[in-house]
């Protein structure tokens, strides 16, 4: 894997200057062509040996291109804010918009490789991490993010010589870190781990390139050439969907409503509602919840009562500790990123709650019915969503998914009520009536969704909602039951 790089090739100054002139012109042109195309972003993942000039190569690249359209992001140890969320959260938030270029230092590879090198991670954990990385990169690639991964490498002798040269000059000694000094001692282990990671994650949609880095001219020209080739490459036509490793939930779930749904009197409703709100309020203020977080995902047909249910839930919470995210048609900024990006941005930190009024399931509900995605993208979305929820669960986020189920007659009654009530008229739109005509299509999509995303780590709960009072109480009771079980363990 590294035999060619460890030969430490060099490039004559005159030849390098000639190639540089051509590259700079071509890079700027390709960068602006990509901006005008506005269909894909380019993500450059930078890693490799320490002390081999990765930073210098990227600085050079920024000089040769227009840095106003490049985001260079460096990740070190997670901050307290980042550590409260799943590991990939900070990378999702930093993704460049379509048309732009992002350069990532300290990527999703760094933590895995360093932990494994220091024996803090078993081979089983490393393999699981690699599977997650492959799924993450496949999702990004399928959503218009072009990925290239650069491993900067040189021989042990060249790395040691470069470190000593920098240390010998007071003006450059600051560039050498303690990690750089230790590379020579652990050179073989780092090289072997890198080779294994490259082999395990080398894919057509996220290829690796080894950059010989002993000669700064070779390093700069090779880096720029690979980036130019990526910018000029046509879009890939198909991405293989990642395998879904989610465990199906053993408890069945169905959209079918019971024949006789009990109804609550106003007096019973007020009394029972207060009881469950009080229990929820105590739970989210316990010390145990301060080490966890809650994502409440609400779905259902139009007029199923999501808004009213959310108000009854949030009444038990501290306004400073929750966020309600209403999901509608994506904005231009959201469309410029992979579809899960806008949901990752709202994942709560410890002790906090995010309530989604409609969710990432729009991908397999609205977009399916409206014909906005093809069958291949829809099949892929089920696996991507299950993986997203699994990451939340494994980090300690409590994921509660609820479908509020009403029948067609009840929906029609609520539509008419909204039309004739000035206080509720804003709730009814032409889209609601148009969607009602597609009831059977939405119902079929919802049944498929429940079957394919009802998992052990994020099971669905379908609540009868023809009676709003009963549905609100049942929702609060379900949240409390799940929370009590999760916090106990």
Task: Give structural notes.
This protein is α/β, with parallel strands linked by helices. It folds into two domains: 2-232, Rossmann fold, CATH 3.40.50.300; 266-488, P-loop containing nucleotide triphosphate hydrolases (Rossmann fold), CATH 3.40.50.300. It has 20 helices and ten strands. It has helices at 13-37, 54-64, 80-83, 89-93, 108-117, 123-142, 156-167, 178-182, 187-201, 216-232, 266-283, 306-314, 332-335, 341-344, 366-369, 375-395, 408-420, 430-436, 439-453, 468-488, and strands at 41-48, 70-74, 101-105, 145-153, 208-212, 293-300, 322-326, 353-357, 397-405, 460-464. The chain has a five-stranded parallel sheet with strand order 2-3-1-4-5, with helices on both faces. Helix 2 crosses helix 10 (216-232) and helix 12 (306-314) packs across helix 20 (468-488). It is elongated. Residues 16-234, 264-487 form the Polyphosphate kinase-2-related domain. One of its GO terms (biological process) is polyphosphate metabolic process. One of its GO terms (molecular function) is polyphosphate:AMP phosphotransferase activity. It holds the Pfam family PPK2. InterPro entries: P-loop_NTPase, PolyP_AMP_Tfrase, PPK2-related.
